[in-house]
Write a structure and sequence with these properties.
The protein is of the alpha/beta class and 225 residues long. The protein has one domain (3-224): 3-Layer(aba) Sandwich (Uracil-DNA Glycosylase, subunit E), CATH 3.40.470. The protein has helices at residues 3-10, 17-28, 66-69, 77-88, 126-141, 154-166, 200-203, 210-224; strands at residues 47-48, 54-58, 109-113, 148-152, 183-187, 190-195. The protein has a 6-stranded mixed sheet, sandwiched between helices. Helix 4 crosses helix 8. It is globular.
Length: 225
């Protein structure tokens, strides 16, 4: 299945009633700074370079970030950190992204989320995670040049391992554990790299710093070389 076909199926999905209600409620009751804006308020497909050797896997769109702009990590504080780091590493043509038509272009990287709709409190339920699983599986299969996956947080790390197992890749025993900067050869020619999620909870407290994020994408560069 092509990435375009996957996108067309993602954006019309209504499998999870709780998430449908939440994404629409967020659009109907935006914070003051976004009042008057038209929200996307639908599931968010991945985006980037179809020939990518690197996949960046997040948890889910933000209620007033991707759910508003229609592009994952676009228009929120986590995205500010992510795109600046991707630009410094040479994966993005600009360090910021505020809306889907802002000129951002990614090279050699595809960005997606394990769950395609914004969940309440950024916490999808297990059945919601499972409902989105086929979309992530299809994306993985549609990226044949993939050499590394940067997992933003433990949820993404566990999701990546599950995706690879389902895709038939042999995984090491015991399974590699998540940690910031953790690297694991999880399949022939494929490396998993752990990274703390660039959420405000992590960046405001100093748990994740710009040099730490840069180190992750430097490791990604080495893994796809």
């Amino acid at each position: 299945m092509s990435l375009k076909v996957i996108e067309s199926e993602v954006v019309v999905c209504t499998r999870c009633p709780r998430l449908v209600a939440w994404r629409e409620q967020a659009a109907a009751t935006p914070p003051r700074r976004y009042r008057g804006e038209t929200y996307w308020a639908r599931p968010i497909p991945g985006f980037g370079d179809p020939a990518a050797r690197l996949l960046v896997l997040g948890l889910a769109p933000a209620a007033h970030g991707g759910n508003r702009t229609g592009r994952v990590f676009t228009g929120d504080r986590s995205g500010d950190w992510l795109f600046a780091a991707l630009h410094r590493a040479g994966f993005a043509n600009q360090p910021t992204s505020t809306h889907a038509g802002d000129g951002l272009a990614l090279t050699d990287v595809w960005i997606t989320a394990a769950v395609k709709c914004a969940p309440p409190d950024n916490q999808p339920l297990p059945d919601e995670r499972d409902a989105c699983f086929p979309f992530a599986m299809a994306e993985l299969a549609a990226l044949p040049e993939l050499r590394a996956i940067v997992c933003l947080g433990k949820f993404a790390w566990d999701g990546a391992l599950r995706l690879l197992r389902q895709a038939g890749h042999p995984l090491p025993t015991p399974l590699p554990r998540f940690g910031h900067g953790a690297e694991a050869a999880v399949a022939p020619g494929l490396t998993l790299i752990g990274c703390y999620h660039p959420s405000q909870q992590n960046t405001f407290t100093g748990r994740l710093t710009e040099p730490m994020l840069d180190d992750v994408f430097a490791a990604a560069r080495r893994a796809i070389a």
